[in-house]
Amino acid sequence: MNDRMSTPWGEYALARFPEDPREQLRAWDAADTYLLRHLAESGTPLTGSVVILGDRWGALATALSAHRPTQITDSFLAHEATRANLARAGAEEAAVQLLTTQDTPPARIDVLLVRVPKSLALLEDQLHRVAPGVHEGTVVVGTGMVKEIHTSTLKLFERILGPTRTSLAEKKARLIFCTPFPGIARDTNPWPYSYQLPDGVGPVSGRTVVNHAGVFCADRLDIGTRFFLQHLPRSRGSERVVDLGCGNGVVGTAVALANPEAEVLFVDESYQAVASAEATYRANADGSAEFRVSDGLAGIPAGSVDLVLNNPPFHSHQATTDTTAWRMFSGARRALRPGGELWVIGNRHLGYHLKLRRLFGNSELVAGDAKFVILRAVKK
Ligand SMILES: C[S@@+](CC[C@H](N)C(=O)[O-])C[C@H]1O[C@@H](n2cnc3c(N)ncnc32)[C@H](O)[C@@H]1O
């Protein structure tokens, strides 16, 4: 949806990435506009090093591009959206320094703006990472929808940066004001977090999984992933296998351990996920694997892949869930060679078999239980 966000700095046409005419979701919300209005009305000096953490689709970076901010995000899609939104606003891409959550943050931060992420763990990790650059005079303002800001969110700011309070709610959004206290005795960053897999999950049984903050099911094995690990296809010879939406990489690592000749490609749109997958793989295997931050299989040559394994993301918003799964499945169809297979695990109620039948002309049930199904589609 291409929509206009009105701010004290002007109006901006903003869109999510990739743009999808079927998806009527805005690229900004009341939390973004509340923060921007507050900055203008309070006369906050936006000088020195301005850092924006967690900007969802680049709304904040685009509106503040004249202040040459640094944007830090875990999302490849957010970076692409920011690039496109800057171009729409007529700003040069170099106006915003785009960093990932894995990059080293600026050594000095004078203004820190935090769009509270959905994952509390990611907030914890990122506040720890930026904390050394925050000084007594740093202006720290967070923003989020009321339902995204909990006592635990405020406690993180308190524990890692300093005393914290919140604003009144406006249009269901709230601001967070934090006064940095440089002498704070903060704990060490607990991330990344490793745990050992249980028995009974095939080749990765008892193996170590490494999770950077914010990845899917970072502290335990997801029950759907467990079911998938128990029913993975046999891979033979020098097959090219893609772990699509790899998260911590446990699925692709299982394939690599079962078939050391397989060339496994781990793909995710989250920088934290791809870093986790690489760490999980390196902790357990030493073959040749590739790690790629990308939107699904975009950029993978057509017909170059033998097997795609996919546990698609499920968000609270059904439209997002559907369009991402559709993009992943259609990308897999393009990337697979004739005879190549896509294996998908999903909640039974999501009805993925209908999408697979439309795209591939076939869909076979490999395994199922009360909650999950594993489906196989073959490229004809
Ligand atoms: C349900 S998790 C599965 C993680 C892992 N494969 C597992 O089974 O534990 C879905 C993953 O898809 C990733 N994802 C979401 N949108 C994506 C996209 N457009 N391209 C690539 N990966 C994406 C998410 O970041 C997340 O890691």
TrEMBL record:
What are the subcellular locations of this protein?
Cytoplasm
Descriptive protein name: Ribosomal RNA large subunit methyltransferase G
Q: What does this protein do?
A: Specifically methylates the guanine in position 1835 (m2G1835) of 23S rRNA.
> What is a single molecular function from GO for this protein?
nucleic acid binding
* Gene for this chain: rlmG
Query: Which reaction is recorded as catalysed by this protein?
Result: guanosine(1835) in 23S rRNA + S-adenosyl-L-methionine = N(2)-methylguanosine(1835) in 23S rRNA + S-adenosyl-L-homocysteine + H(+)
Q: What is its EC number?
A: 2.1.1.174
Fetch the PROSITE patterns from UniProt: N6_MTASE
Highest taxon, organism lineage? Bacteria
Q: Does the keyword rRNA-binding apply?
A: no
Q: What class of enzyme is it?
A: transferase
Family per similarity comment: Belongs to the methyltransferase superfamily. RlmG family.
Q: Which InterPro entries match?
A: DNA_methylase_N6_adenine_CS (IPR002052), RLMG (IPR017237), RlmG_N (IPR058679), RsmC/RlmG (IPR046977), SAM-dependent_MTases_sf (IPR029063), Small_mtfrase_dom (IPR007848)
Principal localisation: cytoplasm
UniProt KW Acyltransferase keyword: no
Task: Please list the residue ranges annotated as the RlmG N-terminal domain.
Answer: 4-180
Per UniProt, which keywords does this protein have? Cytoplasm, Methyltransferase, rRNA processing, S-adenosyl-L-methionine, Transferase
Q: What are the annotated GO cellular component locations?
A: cytoplasm
